[in-house]
Write a structure and sequence with these properties.
single chain; about 375 residues; alpha+beta; eight-stranded mixed beta sheet; four-stranded antiparallel beta sheet; 14 strands; globular; disordered N terminus; binds N-oxalylglycine; binds nickel (II) ion
């Protein structure tokens, strides 16, 4: 490492604390007129998105995650669609869905209202700002400002959706259509999640409602992300490598691109498809299926040209649910994971996040 590189990495703790105290999100930072990213965002070399060789990157560009057409999921071709989903879950833990039944108008309104939210004046968004990860509805930046030692190039909003009456009055009141549009979107996504959970169960030979009962019908958390264009996209990241903690995630992204999935030692770019959803399995599904279905690491890179919006919806078990491999799926093998309470898992997940997949690995039984 050259000496200039080392200088980049030495951002003192005191300096960082002052920086964090004054920060009002990455979008506001960019609007202040900076032309180079502050040192607070410079990731260590091995966490920067350029770590792959050019050859591997070129190779990765040719490989794509499966795109699954759900048109036949409730019709004659159901068995084939279920089988295709099962194969994607085993090999990738990630796939895109088209003809998924969510109306295009609902998708477009949701993207639009999220764009309008992030475009609000900084001070209005800051009214919802909190760095307390236990606060259910909040505007935030980076991942966890109090825990991150290097910041991430992302602002986000967090909106739990279930039960709706517990949370909707806490959602942003501006833009004026936010609550109505988000409510409609969250209902449509919930219906899609239910169909997907049924298909997942069927692909495993379980009763149709089995996975839905554990991962699909309890907590639903909507998280719109905004990744501003970045003057030094090679030095930082929008969201660093992680697997999702819950059961299943459904992501809507705009046309910009930046999501990457780790598959067989390579980062594979997920090509944005208009009005499609990216579906990925999360840690509790890996545990429930005893590792048959994978919760795969992914990350979001940023670019110099365009801001990007993505909208994640996380479906996860109830906090007091006990999660362990489903006995019918063991096929005579010993369980790979010990039982844990989802609420406890989530707490450890946030504490250990910088260690990539350590949360799920820590439940591995030896032998
Ligand atoms: C997430 C996530 C990816 C993206 O919110 O957990 O992985 O492309 N988002 O924003
Ligand atoms: Ni994720």
């Amino acid at each position: 490492m050259g000496s200039s590189e080392e200088e980049e990495l030495t951002f003192g703790e005191a300096e960082m604390n002052v920086f964090k105290q004054n920060l009002k999100g990455v979008k506001a930072l960019m609007e202040s007129g900076i032309t180079r990213i502050p040192n607070a965002y410079v990731k260590p070399l091995d966490e920067r998105p350029t770590k792959l060789s050019a050859a591997a990157a070129a190779d990765g560009n040719k490989i794509e995650i499966p795109v699954i057409d759900l048109a036949d999921l409730d019709g004659d071709g159901q068995d084939q669609v279920v089988k295709t989903i099962g194969e994607a879950c085993e090999k990738w833990g990630f796939f895109q869905v088209i003809n998924h039944g969510v109306p295009t108008s609902v998708i477009h309104s949701m993207m639009q209202v999220c764009q309008e939210f992030f475009d609000l004046p900084t001070e209005e968004k800051m009214e919802l700002y909190s760095d307390d990860t236990l606060k259910p509805v909040r505007f935030g930046t980076s991942y966890s400002l109090s825990k991150d030692t290097v910041l991430e190039w992302r602002d986000y909003l967090r909106c739990p959706c279930r039960p709706l009456s517990d949370f909707i009055h806490l959602w942003p009141a501006k833009p004026s259509t936010f609550r109505e549009v988000t409510m409609e979107y969250s209902k449509e996504i919930a219906a899609l999640a239910k169909r997907l959970c049924y298909a997942l169960s069927e692909s495993l030979g379980l009763e149709s409602e089995c996975l839905y009962e554990v991962i699909g019908k309890h907590q639903q958390i909507l998280m719109p992300n905004h990744y501003p264009a970045c003057p030094n996209p090679d030095l930082t990241i929008g969201l660093s490598a992680h697997s999702d903690a819950g059961g299943i995630t459904i992501l809507l992204q705009d046309h910009v691109g930046g999501l990457e999935v780790f598959n067989e030692g390579q980062w594979i770019a997920v090509k944005p498809l208009p009005d499609a959803f990216v579906v990925n399995l999360a840690d509790q599904t890996q545990i429930l299926t005893n590792g048959k279905y994978k919760s795969v690491e992914h990350r979001a890179t940023v670019n110099a040209q365009r801001a990007r919006i993505s909208i994640s919806t996380f479906f996860q078990p109830a906090a007091d649910a006990k999660i362990a491999p489903i006995p019918e799926l063991l096929g005579g093998q010993p369980p790979m994971y010990r039982e844990s309470l989802f609420g406890v898992y989530l707490r450890d997940f946030f504490t250990n996040r910088l260690n990539r997949k350590s949360a799920v690995d820590s439940l591995k039984l030896s032998g």
